[in-house]
Predict the structure.
Amino acid sequence: MKGTTKNGDNAIRKSKLGGKIVVITGASSGIGRQTAIELLDKGARTIILVARTESKLLELKQVLEARNGSLDLDIVNYSCDVSIKDDVIKMGTGIVEKFGHVDLLINNAGFGEFGKVQDQRIEQIENVMRTNYLGMVYCTKVFLSHMVDRHSGHIVNVASLAASFGVAGMAGYCASKYAMLGFSESLNHELHGTGVKITVVSPIGVKTNFFRNQSFDNHKPNYTGFMLDVRTVTKAILAASNSRRFEIIVPFYMRAGVWLKHTFPFVINPITGTLFRRQLRKPD
C-alpha cells in the first residue's frame, strides 16, 4: 500500500469498510489472517486481531504494518482464548473502553477433531463446542449491547457447510456449526429493526491448517478435491459484512445441495451417508 495515490486514498475512504473498527477472532492463521489482510486493503481504520498465540499475532501485525505504508491505521493484538468466558469479557471490555464501539465482529475462531464418537474422549467434543460455538456466543454477547445501543453494527459468523450436513467422524465439529447456525438465525429475528445485522458464511472445505490437528494424524479424509482457496472464503466474508442476507454459502451452487437435503432427505441422506462413511473407513 506504500505510495498510495490520492485517488487510491479516496477509493478507500468511499469503501463501505473504510474507517470501520473491526474485531476478528481466530486471526492468527488461515481465514482469519487473510481476512485481516483484505480488510486492510479495503480501508478498515482499526483492525483488532484476536487469537490464542501471541507470537503469531505479532507476526501478522508486522505484516499488516509493512503492507499499510503511510495510511492511518490502528492494529491491535489481543491474546485471548475465546473458549474461556472470563478472558473474552476482559478482552471485550478493554476494546470498548479503548475504542468506544465495534462496527464489525467476525467470529472466525474454530477447529475440528476427527474420530468416531465412541472412540473420542468427551473432553474432545467439549473443547470443540467451547471454541466454535460458545466462543462465538461469548464474543457476540460482549459487543452486542453496544451495537444495539448505537443502532449500528454487523456480526459475521464463519460457520461451515457442516452446519447443514452431518459428517461421519466430525460429529462434534458439525454439532458446533449446527449450533452456530441456529443461534445466528434466532438472533437475526431478534435484531430485526435494531440497525444491527448478522450474516453467516458457510463454506465447504477450505485449504487451511484445519487438518493439522493431531486427530487427523492417522486418518486424513480426502476432501481436497472439494476444498476452496482461502481467498474465496475471505471474499465472501467481506461481502457478508455489507450484506443484508442471513446466510452466504460458498460456493454458491452448494445452496442447491442444502435445498435438496432438506426437501428430499430420504434420497440425499443415504447418498451422503455412504460417501462420508467411505471417507471414515479410508486408511491414511
Confidence is low (pLDDT under 50) at residues 1-14. The first strand starts at residue 21 and ends at 25.
